Amino acid sequence: MAHLYSQHLAKQYSLQRNRLRATDKRTFALLKRISIIRKYVLDFGCGDGGYAMQLSRMGARKVVGIDISPTMIKLANRNLKKEQIKNVEFMQADGAQLHFHKNTFDVAFSNFVLHHFQDISAPLNEISRVLKKSGYLLATLNAYKVKSRRFIDAIARSAVPMRLGTGRDSFVVTAFLHTNEDIKSSLIKTGFKVLFYKVVQNPNAAIDSSYHYINQVSYNSLLFLARKM
């Protein structure tokens, strides 16, 4: 199960969201390349709904945003009511157990969500199941590199405190950082073909200094586009 934001943390994240957009330009450039016009889109880990509404404005036929946090879903519905967008829907759901039929969506969009799963294959299997054949998954997430191979198992089992933002407005969330190799392998095993895969700069996040293995690991952010085979 993905990390469940507390009510306080969900509201804090929502307030700071517009400051945490360092990778958006690259992500949405790639999204425009595949086009979501008249497509059914899943916003996997929708947070406060900002991206789902942006996807609607880009021409999607229907956008369904899911998030495990009930506080996030309340915030998303509140924001949706203000915008009066009719083709967006939000619902609380565990990303490892989606309640959609097979072959429902044309595109799945996931912005810094997958690293909240200890077993990344679980959400990837569900996304693959609900995507139509040749459907796309566009995602950003955090991964790690280790100085010594003997630390990989220990790090993979531990939740990593990630500090988002800078200065007094920064806050910490937990994540499970996977290696680049593990992510690629999991995508292939769950039925995806990787079309684009790139390390991107993300000054909005850093491993918090409280992390036990801080001297043994470094992190990077990844942007990838994959197609269901």
Structure, described:
- There is one protein chain.
- By secondary structure, this protein is an alpha/beta fold.
- It has one domain (7-140, 178-200, 218-228): Vaccinia Virus protein VP39 (Rossmann fold), CATH 3.40.50.
- It is built from seven helices and eleven strands.
- Strands 1, 2, 3, 4, 5, 8, 9 and 11 form an eight-stranded mixed sheet that branches. It has a three-stranded antiparallel sheet with strand order 7-6-10.
- Helix 3 links the parallel strand 1 and strand 2.
- It is globular and about 50 Å long.
- 42% of the residues are buried.
- The mean pLDDT is 89.
What is the fold's blueprint, element by element?
Blueprint: H1 7-16, H2 24-34, E1 40-44, H3 50-57, E2 62-67, H4 70-83, E3 88-92, E4 105-111, H5 121-130, E5 131-146, H6 152-157, E6 160-164, E7 171-175, E8 178-179, H7 180-189, E9 192-200, E10 205-207, E11 217-228
Parallel strand pairs: 1-2, 1-4, 2-3, 4-5, 5-8
Antiparallel strand pairs: 5-11, 6-7, 6-10, 9-11
Helix pairs in contact: 1-4
List keywords for this structure.
eight-stranded mixed sheet, Rossmann fold, globular, alpha/beta, 229 residues
Structural class: alpha/beta
Report the top-level CATH class.
Alpha Beta
Rg estimate, integer Å: 17 Å
Question: What would CATH call the architecture?
Answer: 3-Layer(aba) Sandwich
Number of helices: 7
Strand portion, in percent? 25-35%
Major beta-sheet overview: 8 strands, mixed
Tally of individual domains: 1
What's the multimeric state? single chain
Compute the average pLDDT. 89
Helix percentage range:
25-40%
N-to-C CA distance: 26 Å
